[in-house]
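Researcher: I'm comparing several assemblies side by side, and this is the next one on my list. It has 675 residues spread over two chains. Same procedure as the others: predict the full complex and return the structure.
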Amino acid sequence: MNGTAPLVEIEHLTKVFPVKTRAFGGPSLLSAVDDVSLTIERGETLGLVGESGSGKTTLARLALRLLPLTSGAIRIGGLDVHAADRRRLRDLRRRAQIVFQDPYSSLDPRMSVGSIVAEGLRGLTRAERDVRVSELLDRVGLPPAFARRHPHQLSGGQRQRVSIARALAIGPEFLVLDEPVSALDVSVQSQVLNVLSDLQSSLRLTYLFISHDLTVVRHLADRIAVMYLGKLVELAPADELFESPRHPYTKALLSAMPMLDRAERRERIILKGDIPSPIDPPPQCRFAARCFRQTEICWQSVPPLESRGADHLAACFHPLPPGSGEEPADPVVSNGGP
Amino acid sequence: MTSRDRAESGPDSLIDLRGLSVELRMRKRTVHAVNAVSLSLAKEETLGLVGESGSGKTMTALAIMGLLPAPFGKVVAGEVIFDGKDLTALSDSELRKIRGNQISMVFQEPMTSLDPLFSIGSQIVEAIRAHRDLDRQAAKELAVSMLERVHIPSPRQRFDSYPHELSGGMRQRAMIAMALILQPELLLADEPTTALDVTVQAQILDLIAELKSELRMGVLLITHNLAVVREVANRVAVMYAGEIVEIAPTERLFEDPRHPYTQGLMLSIPTSRRVAHLHVIPGRPPDLTRLATGCPFAPRCPYVTNRCESEHPRLEPVSGADGHSFRCWNPQAFSRT
């Protein structure tokens, strides 16, 4: 991470979907991602959190050109993802891969694990391919014999590890992990998280880790970006975000999170109502209607993303004072084997 | 039944499960889904039932409701005592009088229990009229007031909304309104917030807590999320392989878990102190078509002994710790490091 350019650069990324409305007149616009800029350094894990409708999944899909963008740009390793021709796009697919939430629907039930993992491998003899598949399975902690099994013979955690092995097959530098452990039981979740940390250090991978589970994100991420209704509202180093959230939405989100550790309990801020409609949003703070700190100005203009300390950005006219995460003085729970 | 089982059901006991066993009988094999589960729930108490997929949490709740999947699911042993009656011995029509009336259930996915073809209001009215002799107008008024009580904005307009027109949080509230409209004594809530966003989850958990004290209702909260349980439950029962392996008042369970499985679960969850590797419980849950003679957790247990493999441990109380029991032949002190 020293001195070199970030691996992923996202600039003023915007995506609107035209939607039909019942009223007369032209189509309305659903603002899914609005003017989001961020970078991800090589070897870094950027956590992306937000609730349904926040735009986090749309952002991930735009990053890999699984959707066309409306405006802005994304570069991965200097390559402009959305301007790339077919040949360069193939190159991009080698560099960047995605792992989805549901290992049940993302693996073809008719294919063996070996063929699933080897799908992207080209120009290898059968023997070379088998060796490579064994290596990849080993990397995710599965024995070579699993190559002959089929997805229905595997548990959820094993399937998710197969999805990861498949994504690794062509040697990517960048992995988008879209809720990779959300469908898994606690004990299986910890296995998959360990596999992801190990792979990152041995292969020097860069992750965009999307999750609605803040505890999991904090465990894996170096920095965390918080989205609300298509907007990037806060971006900070992981511990800093937890200890010193500056945006009221981040604070509410953290406070709503059930905590296993009593000492980390925060006074709960219950947000009123639901996330408002993303259709034709007015030019104002998108969180204003539910915010406990809003004033007139919040309804009149869009708060810019501004620096609130070292490496810490927040988009709010009335940011919370530093240290408002109420981190306990003496954390009592840690982790490790018995 | 042992004397200890009897002692657990105090005067305030709302429901008693006594040695409840459930089997799912498929054509070629039988799954022993719930094995000799005994527990009781008091009025105004929230009991958290935790465990991983396939541990028998949902089957326990379905057995209480008499809603085991037909034709496979059967209660093969034990009783469910509610209001002086054994629910497992009641006929379908007798059970229907209790379901939705004295005992209600809320599921993870409201779309599966709300009918997409009817407005939420008409579904709530139907639920009322199935059990109470009210005319349509009176039932509607009752429904609207309940929608208001679960904090659905503009309840009179929302009455005519169809399920797909509501957000996930609103649908879950509508389902809670329907479940609670007749003021049940017992609510079975099966992963009621798992499909919801965290801020909505907080709203729904608060709502359940509020209505619980208002209606003096007992709540059996089924979830895989230990953090949720810690926040809302008075007591927690941990299930593994269809049986209760540990049960204790919430704070006790989290501060002094005794069963190696409970300990393993707690260590598997990431916390603020970041570590390179999270704890992993090795292996997989056992195949419930074959019940082990020994402890079902033995193959995965770090403290396994010969005895664990041959003899099934009983649920024994912790001396000096009221209401804390666990089943283990070789318990070790819990260490978080």
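Model: For your comparison table: The longest strand of chain A covers residues 28-40.
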